[in-house]
Amino acid sequence: MSLESAFESPSRGPSIQVESAISSEFPSVLADDTLEPSPYQAALFHLRQGMQALCDLSPGTDRDKRAAHDELLSLQKQVLQLLHLHFAPDGESITSRPFGEVLRQHRDEAGLTQDQLAEHAGLSLSLVRKLEQGSKPPTRDSLLRLCSVPELKLIPQEITTLPAMRERSFRLAPNWYVSPGFDSVAMLSELSEQLNGGGCAVEQTHVYLDHKSALDWISLCNTPKFTSMRQSFPHEELAARIHEVLGEAGLDVIALGPGDGKTEVQLVRSMLAEVEKPNIRFYLLDASQPLLSRAFRHASDSFDDQPGIFVCGIQGDFHHLPRYMQLHYTPARSHRRRIYMLLGCTLGNLEHEPQFFRHSLSGAAPGDLLLFDVDYPFADSMDPAEIRRKDPAFAGPVAEENQRWLGGPITRYCREVQSISFSIGLDTNRPLSGSYGLQFLAKVQILGGQTKEFCMLQVRRYQPQGLIDCFRTLGWQHVGLLPFRGSKTRPRAVMMFQKQFAKNG
Prior knowledge:
Layout: H1 14-25, H2 39-56, H3 62-86, H4 99-110, H5 114-121, H6 125-133, H7 140-147, H8 156-159, H9 163-167, E1 176-178, H10 184-195, E2 200-201, H11 211-221, H12 224-231, H13 235-246, E3 251-256, H14 262-272, E4 280-286, H15 289-303, E5 309-315, E6 337-342, H16 353-360, E7 369-375, H17 384-390, H18 400-413, E8 417-427, E9 436-446, E10 451-461, H19 464-473, E11 476-487, E12 490-499
Parallel strand pairs: 1-5, 2-10, 3-4, 3-6, 4-5, 6-7
Antiparallel strand pairs: 7-12, 8-9, 9-10, 11-12
Helix pairs in contact: 1-2, 2-3, 4-6, 5-6, 11-18, 13-14
């Protein structure tokens, strides 16, 4: 069946027919396993969505059906154009001209000088000259700037098929998403309701959500203690261990709650150095738009000229990870592997760790990796008196930078606040053996005499064996432990697990 004929009778069946026709007419797409999303994968995903939407309208009116059918025909046209543009039947690129030649032709046709083009695009004259001469390949940023010049009439799909682009694994694929159902305004409204209630444990995501909270968090990360902790992180050792386990496989690196992304970017940079031919899709998933923007910009600037890596930002809640289809383009036949990261002790902020990994990582495939860093406990027993005596968190007041960060949402969203005082609470009722939690408690005095208490942050300490035992029951095998000292008084470790094949019987 031809690709065109597969669209003729829109129903539940043709989606399978279309996929088969694509594979038949464009065999090269099956080998297109570079960066996310490939034209084939992205087009096919949207095709499935469109056909499903059409099927859902089958009980509707004739008018609804006609409108849906028109939408499907439009989608068909887009899919066909995309595939024919990127893939020739023989598997070769249909465009063979150098980028500099294409740019010069479009500039001449637009009647622009190099000076004028540089001014319109916001680029230097020397860069425009180098691009046309072919002495410097375009970066994603420079290419997007050139495409934004209306007179130039550059078509992104046209120029991304050029051999130079494909050699650099360069794509103008979408690189920023907002997850379906995610609503940061609703989250702020929920935070306000919580803080104006009688007291509660605030959902952890909320303390990073707005721009002022993000700024306070960044300031906290720039303190000497946090800077020292980041510098001690074993990036190179961990990258070497990942390569030892996964080899030269293409990687989808998924950073969950990366904050400003500095630790994650440094680790990915070390991973790039381990492989002969890098092939990495680097996803940053965070609920805080300002923090995600910061991390995305840092990653984009770090890897702009680096071939073999695609950076993508996703604004959303990683507790709903299975909903994010951007992370599920990889076909079953692919040899790619996912690496889920929770760095910066993000694991220690989760309310119920086993439940999170059971549900949120339900889409992990055998061979995928999970890695996170944890703080070790300071006491060998769960005796509260011993923990309070040995854990340095109980030795003094809550640090001013922590008070400023955690107290900020209270002063902004809780009405009639008179004063806030912080203390550290202890939680030994944890689902993982050998772990306990620190609770950053805020006692809020309200005008009129009312007092409320909020748990603004929870931080956990873990015995590695308790985590190993727990993850074994969830189908994850322990494959790495790298102890390091985050500070003089804070022993930590990076732990790595690999998803196993389900046992028969």
